[in-house]
Structures are given as structure tokens and as C-alpha cells.
């Protein structure tokens, strides 16, 4: 018997063998196909005879694949990678097959049209509504000719976005600069120098190799004293994948961008949307393009004065301290860093000793207990994929288990970088009861020294809180329908609400007492260090805000206004117009940033880049309720639990948010938390 096909409560990671994966997947896909066909031979359709069995099929597939996908991310091997990439197309084919199954669509529609529908719970109705929406967005109800056209467009889009990203990658890798004399790199820190040296060695060269990979680029922009060198690298970096720059159009994305926009426009039109921005909003919390644009413009209007103030201050600093009269784009990061160093002398190493993981984690659990009444306890019997992984059980007020999570905190070989939360199992009703949710929380913190607790930076603490926000959105759900339980079915621009909300707690003195404690003395983070962290937090927040708004506005307007007469020049004009409206930083007219904007041309953020700010507004406004009613002593935690976290995707976030807050979110709290609303008193230089 293939162990991957066994029924389990918790996945048995140690018994997963790569060789078993593909046969197990083939088997489940085959079983699901047969089951689906027989489901569709019924004469009438109900929640019980169609939707519940459908959910079982997808849960079965998820229970097989979630642990495999997870291992691929955290315990990669060549063998696993090969099998994984062989299996992916099988999964995609199956998903497309289901999404475009006309009979299935009609059957689900029949449940919606039946008399049973109004008797179903909110979560069940939402499951059906989402399913129908997704069927339509997959083109299932189009006439045959249009269906073929739609499939063709999807294929083109996937090829074009791959080409776009490939061009950016190639352009990034096609240029390097070898520096022989260390003196030319004055200003760079030890870490950057060692990296540049290693980069050279890996190419069999002596000296220091500068590249356009982001860490190398950033190190030069931030620290290199040589202004000419900075400009040189800046120029190449901002013209990547354009008709300008040293590779002279070899990886030019001009036509690729136009083709992508054209295909997206056609996809939207085939599905009867006016433009791609409207299509994008079909699955988001924001209702209309007008709502998104006025939201972004309102933020811009109110943040611009501070951004201008930030800029004025930086100019004054560069002039007074360094004799620079004309601040250029390649000076921005450099002098910003110098000003930061001068003003907020605080380094990661100053605070690290105060955040041993053995203090941070219990402190975080205590916060979750205070807010939501839950308790968390380690369970040492679980089967895990690495001996550093820990497994925890979550219980509600009455002592009833409600969910589980794994944490895998430290960087190691064969583990993907970054931090994330993933769903291992989703809460849902089965014939025998409720299957509880399980989450993965993965980070890449520096490994602890042997026998010692890992010491985190404040940034890492914030990251941990962020991922726990996602995890507890997933774990505290009370919804029993898998498709809208936990993080499932939550609109894309709202899914970061619980995670960003959690970050706020890392800035509260009351919580600081719980999560900090010097690893030798146990002393909490001293107030003087905490105040410095706090001041540094909002450094240049006006400039950062305007930069994000520039990207978001450009993305959204471009996808809204595009028509087939567009040229690369017209794209540039749209960007220029947005910049004229919001940008306050120095510019050069040869900057071709859009040619490497992979978020929107190579990834999933098209007409959706605004989501970053949208979710931030929600999370800040949500936290403001705690500030208004008492941080840890109010029942705001309960309101957040009952109206947001427990509800998952069972109802639209707009409705849920109103229930929680008693009104819609406003941007004021975000402006206040970023230091934009405060009365501004410039510090003397
Ligand atoms: Zn997140």
C-alpha cells in the first residue's frame, strides 16, 4: 500500500518517499475523475449530493499534495524537484478540466436555482457563489468559438509573462562589473565586500564582482562612496530589459508589455468586462475602479506634504553635511542611509540580545491568549520533517482542540528563502465529524548557536507576528465549508488584514514586556532602545508611501486605459503622468522601471498592486479600534475574533469589516501609524 494514500489525521512526513508521490497522485486524480463523472449522472442536485462530495474530492487531493508541496519548499532534493515538476502539469490539467466542466457548472447552478439555496447557511451559499463566479471567470459559459479564443488567450498570456520575467532575468544577469581595487568600493560594509569577492571567485576571477542582483545593487546604492560608480550601476539597473542600456535592446520588453496588455484586455472583453482592471476586481474586496483610484489618490494627496518634507530634509542634509547641491536618483538611497545613521543610531545587534526565541514565542502566545482566549501547547509526539520543527496544539476557552500548527524557523540548506504561512489542512465537515485546520509557519531566521536560543532582530519578530496573523486566520475559523474556511475564499486585497494587524503589536510597550527579555539577564528591552526603534520605524515614511502609490496608480490606470492603439511610448506617458501627480523624488527621463516591473507583467499583481496599501488601511484601522477602546483589556479582540478571524471567506470582507468596526475603514489610522498625520517637527540637522 502506498503510504501517501493512507487516511491520516496528521501527515506522516517521515514516511513520504519521493518515489511514492507520482503513483499516489495519479491514483487520486483518477479516482476523482471517476467520482466526478458519477456525481454528474444524478437527476437532481443538492448541497448534500453534489457540493459535499465535491468538497471531499478537493480535500482528498489537498491532503495528498499539501505535505508534498511543503516538503518541496523546505526539504528540497533533486529527486523531489524532478517529481514535483512532473506532477505540476497533471494538477494544472485536472484543475482546468474541473473549472471548464460545463455539466458541473450547470449542476452547481442548479443548486443555486433550487428551493434549497435560501435554506443553506451563509458559508454554503458563499461556496456556491464563489464556485459559479470562478466557473464564469474560466470561460465555462462562453459559446464554443469564444471558449477556444479564451483558452488561446490564456496560453498566450502565460507564455508572454514568462518571456517578460525571462528578459528581466537575462538582462539582470547579462551585466557585471569587475573591480580590482578595493579602494573603489569604499563605504561598502564587510558583508557586501565578501559577497562581491565570492561572486568574483565563483566566476574564476580575482577582485570584486558587482552585479545587478538586488542585494549587490542595493549595497552599492546604499553604501558606495563613489558617486560615479553609483550612477554607472543605477543607469544600467533602471534600463534593464528596455531598448536602452548596455545590452542594447537584446532583452527588450517593450513589445512584450504591449502584447501582455493586449491579451489581458481581450481576456476581459471576452468575459464581458470593460477592461482588465474591472476583471481584476471581480475577485477582490474593492467594488469598482473608481473606488480604487479615489482611494489611492486620497492617500497620495494626504501623504505628499510629508514626502516633500522628507525630500527637503534629505536635500538639506546632503548639502550641509556632504556639499551636494543637486541630489540625483543615485544619491537618494546613499544619503538617506547616511541621514538614518546620523539620526537613529540603532543597529540590529543592539536589540538582538533582547529577543531570544524562548521569550518571543511564549510572549506571542500570551498575547493570543489575551486577545482571543485560546491556549497553545507544544505536542512533542508529532511526526515532523526536520528535528528543529515544532508542532503545537491550539485549544479554545473551553479546552477543546480547534487546530494545530508546525513552526520551522531557521534557515538551512535546501529550504526556500523568506517567510510564509501555508495551509496544511483546512477545517471542514466530514461524515464523521469536523476535521481541524493545520498550518505551516515557516521562517528563515539565523540559526541559533549550539545549545543557545536563537536571538531575533526586531524585524524578524515582526515577521513572525505577521505569519502568525495568517496562521490564526486559518486556525481560528469556525466555518465548516473548506472552500471558504480560514484563509480560503478571502478576497485577495483583504487577505493581508490579519497578518499586518498582528505587526502592530510589536510596537506596543505592554507587549514588549512579554516578548523581550535579555538572553543573559532577562531584562526587557530598555525604553531608550524601544523609543529609537519607534522613531526609526517611520523614517521617510512619506517617501515610501508615495513610491508605493506611484506603482499602484501606474498599474491600475494602465490596465484600465489600455487599448489596441497603445505604443511603448504611450505606456511611458502614463507613467510620466502618474509621476507628475505623485512623485517628489529626483528623476531621469531614461528610467525604464516599467520594463522590469515583474509584479504586474510577470506575476499575479496586475491591476492589483494597490492591494498592498488597501490591506494596510484595513489592518491599521482595525488596530485603531483597540487603541480607542483599550489595547489589551477591551473586548475588541473578541470582536475581531468573532467577526473577522472565525468567519474566513464565508462572507464578503466589506460586510465582515463593518460588523467588526461598525463602519467602513478609513485611511486616517494608517496615516497616523506611519507618522504622516502627526504634527511634523523637523529635527535640527
Ligand atoms: Zn502576508
Chain oligomer state: single chain
CATH superfamily membership of the domain at 254-346 and 540-609, which one? Neurolysin, domain 3
Straight-line N-to-C gap:
73 Å
Return the structural class: alpha+beta
Backbone CA Rg: 26 Å
Task: Count every beta strand, where a strand is a DSSP E run of 2 or more residues.
Answer: 9
Q: So how many helices? A: 26
Averaging pLDDT over every residue, what do you get?
94
Largest sheet descriptor: 5 strands, mixed
CATH topology (level 3) name of the domain at 254-346 and 540-609: Neurolysin, domain 3
CATH class value of the domain at 254-346 and 540-609: Mainly Alpha
CATH architecture of the domain at 254-346 and 540-609: Orthogonal Bundle
Ligand inventory reads: zinc ion
Q: Looking across the biggest beta sheet, what order are the strands in?
A: 3-4-5-9-6
Percent in strands: 5-15%
Helix content: 55-70%
Q: Given the C-alpha coordinates, what overall shape results?
A: globular
Indicate the low-confidence ranges by residue numbers: 679-685
Topology:
Layout: H1 18-39, H2 47-74, H3 78-99, H4 102-113, H5 122-137, H6 144-173, E1 176-179, H7 190-202, E2 208-211, H8 214-223, H9 227-238, H10 254-270, H11 276-281, H12 289-322, H13 329-343, H14 348-351, H15 357-372, E3 375-378, E4 390-395, E5 401-410, E6 420-425, E7 428-430, E8 433-435, E9 438-445, H16 458-475, H17 497-503, H18 509-515, H19 527-537, H20 541-561, H21 568-582, H22 598-601, H23 611-629, H24 636-645, H25 653-661, H26 668-673
Helix pairs in contact: 1-2, 1-3, 4-5, 6-10, 8-13, 12-20, 15-18, 16-17, 17-23, 20-21, 24-25
The protein binds zinc ion.
